[in-house]
Amino acid sequence: DGGITQSPKYLFRKEGQNVTLSCEQNLNHDAMYWYRQDPGQGLRLIYYSQIVNDFQKGDIAEGYSVSREKKESFPLTVTSAQKNPTAFYLCATYRAPYNEQFFGPGTRLTVL
Amino acid sequence: DQQVKQNSPSLSVQEGRISILNCDYTNSMFDYFLWYKKYPAEGPTFLISISSIKDKNEDGRFTVFLNKSAKHLSLHIVPSQPGDSAVYFCAASASGAGSYQLTFGKGTKLSVIP
Q: A48–B107: do the CB atoms touch at under 8 Å?
């Protein structure tokens, strides 16, 4: 089955701890994206990667870091520098010539 | 500065009637527009899209209309069904941007009342 996997579905962390969210895809898509969703805020782009070993900051990259060592994987680390990390995090992929992004099921991160 | 705006945070419609969701954009470089549907605690799913060379695209109960001069698009759902209750996001992309990115609106929560 082709798809995007984000694990875990729910994640709890204490304030001040770094946490890494997983995103894996077997769609053979080149580009991958991380968004966060807050109530009433829509989807805001954190980071994106068009190819392996390359990634770019999105609109709200502060306090986050990513890596893209494999085409299939694009993990997101939420660092202690992120002031308000509690949110719903979505991973997405894209491959030309399709015109839409495909989304994973999301991870709900709660920082206590 | 919001480049894609969905000014109605919520909309309630009776089952069987038409639902009209609106979206405005400010960036003239946008040339492709998409609608996504999202249920709580799930990822968005693609619903329908339209290129700027068209003014209408239809797929079953869903039709998207684009008015380029007004920088406005709308999603029509006819007839509305209770299963359509979800948050709908409007998104836009610019083909000349060098990388494929979507800019999303804040979403409209549609409630279809049985």
A: no
